[in-house]
């Protein structure tokens, strides 16, 4: 399957639009190949970081797969395109595709890095249900610091997982991978944000009909106003300013 990037108009970034079945085909190839790969996702937060942080953008440019995670990114990408399936199939947050991992052949070792000890253990139990027979290793990430980072890197080198979920929040999880990726064992490394808590049931997922309408932000704002308010009300204006400045420079 081709992993050719496609431009997202207006936002001036690229993505790898895939539905769940297409992503499973790609991940199967990654598992079979056994080489180092990186899977990330684009929402407005990551787009803002791409335009404000050159190191972050370079990390996304080098990633093997850049899924479409946010509804605005999806709307701008699919505008004017003729698609062979509903556009919403191409919006993949981590919890949209992780439940399909049981279809992969030969997936035997998974590591889950991030969240507190209880949430991490809950995500491990859920993954054991999704991928029966696989060894699932949990590495909590609460209070992340240099010591935890070094310890996690050492554990990965010992465990040698095939698939790694890194859920430390953006941009910390991307910064950690940038620092350690060249020295880490071959695996597919996926940045998953808050998906560990969601898999554990600690953080409630928005109803899917809200996601299809692009209103997931309202659900998160109601549940976690302190954490989400700036992302909803402030960051879009920052992004508009960054895009305007980029266009002025080009002009």
What's the structural blueprint in terms of helices and strands?
Layout: E1 6-8, E2 13-15, H1 20-33, E3 37-42, H2 44-52, H3 54-62, E4 65-68, H4 71-78, H5 94-97, E5 109-114, H6 117-130, E6 135-139, H7 146-159, E7 163-167, H8 172-180, E8 188-191, H9 195-200, H10 208-212, H11 216-223, H12 225-250
Parallel strand pairs: 3-4, 3-8, 5-6, 5-7, 7-8
Antiparallel strand pairs: 1-2
Helix pairs in contact: 2-3, 2-12, 11-12
Describe this structure in words.
The chain is of the alpha/beta class. 50% of the residues lie in helices and 14% in strands. The chain contains 12 helices and 8 strands. The protein has a 6-stranded parallel sheet with strand order 4-3-8-7-5-6, with helices on both faces. It has a two-stranded antiparallel sheet with strand order 1-2. A hairpin with a 4-residue loop joins β1 and β2. α2 packs across α3, α2 packs across α12 and α11 packs across α12. The longest helix is centred in the last third of the chain and has 26 residues.
What's the short version?
Helices cover 50% and strands 14% of the residues. With 251 residues, the protein is an alpha/beta fold.
Question: How would you describe this structure in keywords?
Answer:
six-stranded parallel beta sheet; 50% helix; 251 residues; globular; alpha/beta; two-stranded antiparallel ribbon; 12 helices
Q: Helical content, roughly?
A: 40-55%
Distance between the termini: 37 Å
- Rounded mean pLDDT is 91
| Beta strand count | 8
How are the strands of the biggest sheet laid out side by side?
Answer: 4-3-8-7-5-6
Strand residue percentage: 5-15%
Radius of gyration: 18 Å
Succession of helices and strands: EEHEHHEHHEHEHEHEHHHH
Unreliable stretches, pLDDT < 50, 5 or more residues?
Answer: none
Label the overall shape.
globular
Structural class: alpha/beta
> How would a crystallographer describe the biggest sheet?
6 strands, parallel
- Tally of separate helices: 12
């Amino acid at each position: 399957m081709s992993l050719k990037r496609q431009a997202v108009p207006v936002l001036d970034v690229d993505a790898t639009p895939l539905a769940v079945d297409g992503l499973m085909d790609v991940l199967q190839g990654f598992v079979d190949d056994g080489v180092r790969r990186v899977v990330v996702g684009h929402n407005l937060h990551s787009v803002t970081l791409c335009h404000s942080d050159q190191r972050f953008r370079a990390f996304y440019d080098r990633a093997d797969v850049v899924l479409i995670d946010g509804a605005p990114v999806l709307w701008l990408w699919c505008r004017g395109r003729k698609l062979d399936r509903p556009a919403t199939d191409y919006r993949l947050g981590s919890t949209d595709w992780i439940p399909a991992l049981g279809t992969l052949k030969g997936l035997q070792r998974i590591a889950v890095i991030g969240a507190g000890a209880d949430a991490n253990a809950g995500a491990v139990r859920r993954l054991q249900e999704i991928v029966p027979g696989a060894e699932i290793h949990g590495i909590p990430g609460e209070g992340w610091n240099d010591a935890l980072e070094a310890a996690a890197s050492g554990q990965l080198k010992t465990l040698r997982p095939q698939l790694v979920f890194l859920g430390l929040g953006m941009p910390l999880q991307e910064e950690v991978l940038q620092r350690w990726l060249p020295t880490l064992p071959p695996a597919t490394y996926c940045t998953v944000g808050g998906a560990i808590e969601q898999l554990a049931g600690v953080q409630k997922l928005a109803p899917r009909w809200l996601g299809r309408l692009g209103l997931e932000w309202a659900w998160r704002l109601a549940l976690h106003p302190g954490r989400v308010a700036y992302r909803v009300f402030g960051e879009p204006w920052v992004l508009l300013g960054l895009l305007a400045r980029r266009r002025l420079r080009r002009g």
